[in-house]
Recover the amino acids of this structure.
């Protein structure tokens, strides 16, 4: 019989972080001896993924151990979405002080307070549906975030129904650049400064077409009042990086085109500085989006060593509000109230449509 040598998970569960109107779960990782006022990175998984699976693949907690920042993983539940997608296309979930967006904001507030993190250095990233929800978080709570990163995602507010969501994923959008900007500016009363943004997309992505990369860029360069053309173009590990700078010369927006890559997170898992591990939608590309995004945000500590940081999660459980939550512990949570009336509202009737579309996109067997 083959013996499994799967290492223990790095994430701990956090409970009692607020009213949680989106009925999400929350997991986090804080390295040992985390200094006061450390940064926080919020990571949003894609459809069919979990917090722990995404962390293993992308390597965010692994990088956090090397560079001393905390990581928060909101996690979707099947009662909300049968394929574990964040509901980036439902208006009640991408509105300020409502639904899933509000739940994520509540998690951030709780973790910052309980771990004395720096509220001025909070960042958010995600893949696919998590990338689209990243756009939603940046738009609805721009004062919370210093920066974001959208990987294989979509612009904020581009879809408000399931049908529109599938059309937008295929790159079909009639929204103008001005309309895209207005969606962000209308999502809150914020008037700047706006979060900086890193945008990643594979050129062969057939699930969320590369056209969406252009739309995300257009949406945020207009918000930042940046030129249509990049300020400069670099090459990083053989891939094209476009950079937009503001009038003061500060980098505000960057975009990576990952040539030949399909739908997923670009990884560089090989060698001494390898990060993460390959899995479905975690794709070896010879460039670590996790590492490069952290560099863009200014999170990489000069002279940090390359230790694995195993002691940070092997030595003890973590504690929040007097509850000890061990890795892998998944206590039951009360079902979301809306689920009980899904048949009446029509929300539950979309499950077949979601499954068929995900199968067509190669996300389900």
């Amino acid at each position: 019989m083959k013996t499994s040598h799967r290492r223990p998970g790095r994430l701990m569960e956090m409970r009692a972080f607020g009213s949680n109107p989106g009925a999400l779960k929350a997991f986090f990782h804080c390295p040992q001896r985390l200094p006061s006022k450390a940064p926080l990175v919020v990571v949003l998984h894609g459809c069919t993924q979990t917090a722990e699976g995404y962390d293993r693949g992308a390597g965010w907690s692994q990088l956090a151990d090397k560079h001393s920042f905390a990581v928060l993983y909101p996690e979707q539940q099947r009662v909300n979405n049968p394929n574990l997608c964040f509901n980036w296309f439902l208006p009640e979930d991408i509105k300020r002080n409502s639904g899933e967006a509000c739940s994520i904001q509540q998690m951030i507030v709780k973790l910052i307070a309980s771990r004395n993190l720096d509220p001025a250095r909070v960042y958010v990233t995600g893949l696919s549906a998590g990338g689209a929800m990243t756009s939603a978080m940046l738009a609805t709570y721009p004062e919370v975030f210093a920066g974001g990163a959208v990987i294989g995602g979509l612009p904020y507010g581009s879809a408000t129904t399931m049908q529109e969501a599938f059309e937008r994923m295929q790159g079909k959008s009639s929204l103008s650049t001005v309309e895209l900007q207005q969606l962000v500016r209308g999502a809150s009363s914020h008037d700047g400064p706006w979060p900086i943004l890193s945008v990643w997309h594979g050129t062969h992505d057939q699930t969320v077409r590369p056209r969406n990369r252009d739309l995300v860029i257009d949406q945020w360069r207009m918000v930042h009042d940046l030129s249509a053309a990049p300020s400069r173009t670099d090459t990083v590990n053989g891939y094209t990086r476009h950079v937009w700078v503001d009038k003061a010369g500060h980098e505000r927006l960057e975009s990576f085109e990952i040539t030949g890559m399909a739908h997923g997170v670009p990884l560089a898992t090989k060698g001494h500085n390898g990060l993460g591990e390959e899995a479905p939608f975690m794709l070896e590309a010879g460039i670590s989006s996790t590492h490069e995004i952290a560099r863009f945000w200014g999170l990489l500590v000069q002279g940090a060593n390359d230790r694995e940081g195993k002691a940070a999660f092997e030595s003890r459980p973590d504690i929040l509000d007097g509850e000890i939550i061990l890795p892998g512990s998944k206590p039951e949570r009360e079902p979301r109230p809306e689920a009980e009336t899904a048949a009446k509202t029509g929300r539950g009737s979309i499950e077949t449509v979601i499954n068929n579309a995900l199968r067509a996109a190669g996300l389900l067997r």
Observations:
- Residues 12-360 form a domain with the Rossmann fold fold (CATH 3.40.50.1820).
- The first strand starts at residue 12 and ends at 14.
- The chain has a mean pLDDT of 85.
- Residues 179 and 219 are 8 Å apart (CA to CA).
